[in-house]
Amino acid sequence: MSTTTAPFAEVASSNAALRAFLHGLPGVDRVGADARAAMLGTRSIKTTAKAKAIDLAISMVDLTTLEGADTPGKVRAMCAKAVHPDPTDPSVPRVAAVCVYPDLVATAVRALDGSGVKVASVATAFPSGRSSLDVKVADTALAVAAGAAEIDMVIDRGAFLSGDYLKVFEEITAIKAACGPAGGAQEGEHSAHLKVILETGELATYDNVRRASWLAMLAGADFIKTSTGKVQPAATLPVTLVMLEAVRDFRLRTGRVVGVKPAGGIRTTKDAIKYLVLVNETAGADWLTPDLFRLGASTLLNDLLMQRQKMATGRYAGPDYFTLD
């Protein structure tokens, strides 16, 4: 069953209809997007606002481990850090989510029980997306059954770049269905939010980023995400600007609100604050919440903690003060 937003139900009737709609979207002025992102990136904020921004950024982090050498012990340690990023300071907010492979979801769910930190899982043949739809749906169902509250899926970039938009649309709707009914159809039934990874580093143009953003939202995405972190370039300010404009315009036309997650390459507090300014100035303050904006950048957390302590004490912690990710 299609999850297309009602005003656009006819858009997904065929690949030709999707192509006509997506290629009819306003083109992106690349020079203008780059210039606006660069300009917003120079904005400075005062000390009190910076302290709040750091805590907000911490609360938006998806702490992630996606390596072949991941173990249950590593996941449990990461979960402990997610709940108490600085064990010596209980005022530090917890992060938004922990993201792991499907086979480690159950470990993360047990470790985070009652903490308020969500468990996310990559699925759909992450990071390439090169597999059959049956495998992708099974991968998703495994993670949801194990307790994942969020699924990060990757689109088939080959299909998208060859113009087979209907295939991409139908895969997203199928994965959305595998996430379970919105809110759970019956008491106690589990469902997960869907983040759709566009892998913007492989989409080549800002116009393609805008088209992929709209395609994902039309198919039912709860979030649109820049990158897997495995392809360069990953998140950039101009690409995130284009995606924020897309979710803003989508809400204006449909009333539905979709989140945004830049992921990969965001390493410093200065970087994180640039993204928060970009969100506020592009989509608006409504998106300045972990429910609608995430930062997929595990190495960022330690720098946020260091800068937070510097503001509180006037000095930086030693290099071994915070646990390594």
Automatic annotation (TrEMBL):
Organism: Microtetraspora fusca
PANTHER family per the UniProt record, alphabetical: DEOXYRIBOSE-PHOSPHATE ALDOLASE
Lineage of the species this protein comes from: Bacteria, Bacillati, Actinomycetota, Actinomycetes, Streptosporangiales
Gene designation: deoC
Any one GO MF annotation of this record: deoxyribose-phosphate aldolase activity
Keywords annotated in UniProt: Lyase, Schiff base
Gene3D superfamilies: Aldolase class I (3.20.20.70)
Transmembrane segments: none
Enzyme class (EC, first level): lyase
Classification via InterPro entries: Aldolase_TIM, DeoC, DeoC/FbaB/LacD_aldolase
Pathway noted in the entry: Carbohydrate degradation; 2-deoxy-D-ribose 1-phosphate degradation; D-glyceraldehyde 3-phosphate and acetaldehyde from 2-deoxy-alpha-D-ribose 1-phosphate: step 2/2
Enzyme nomenclature, EC number: 4.1.2.4
Catalytically driven reaction(s): 2-deoxy-D-ribose 5-phosphate = D-glyceraldehyde 3-phosphate + acetaldehyde
Keyword Lyase: yes
Protein name as annotated: Deoxyribose-phosphate aldolase
Family according to the record: Belongs to the DeoC/FbaB aldolase family. DeoC type 2 subfamily.
